[in-house]
Amino acid sequence: MLRLSSRQFSTTCGVQGGEKWRKEQGVARSGTEYGPLTDLPDWSFADGRLAPPMKGQLRRKQQQEVLARRIVMLNDEMDRGMEAWSKKKEEAKKMEEHKKSLLLKPKGKLLMKKKSQS
Question: What predicted TM-score, i.e. pTM, was given to this entire model?
């Protein structure tokens, strides 16, 4: 005998509470991505020295450095691409002007008409 189950299966992903509000306010999706609670040390010495950085802080710092290097690299690549595009455009314009200069020019009566019209 086959039993029918009344249990339902959901395929939606869970959303953390407040994620929509955080995005609207321009802060991190969750409270653990960045900010003073994750970036600053948890404790310090009594004489005011900072605590040694934790593994998570070092990892986040390294990820941020990698991201910053990638941004700089992509920005340089974009600048080089824009320069190459503008040079290519200028060369095409020069070629077009050169082709126009090679066209046959009016002679005789046509040249006289053209001069008198202008």
Answer: 0.56
Alpha-carbon distance values, 65 to 19, 31, 70, 71 (Å) = 26, 21, 9, 10
Stated as kind and residue range, the H or E segment containing 5 is none
Half-sphere exposure of 86 (CA within 13 A, CB side): 5
User: Residue 44 pairs with which residues in a beta bridge?
Assistant: 50
Cα–Cα distance between 57 and 41 in angstroms, integer? 8
Q: What is the pLDDT of residues 62-113, one digit of tens each?
A: 999 999 999 999 999 999 999 999 999 999 999 999 998 888 777 777 777 7
Cα four-point dihedral sign 67, 68, 69, 73: positive
Helix and strand totals (H; E) in the chain? 4, 0
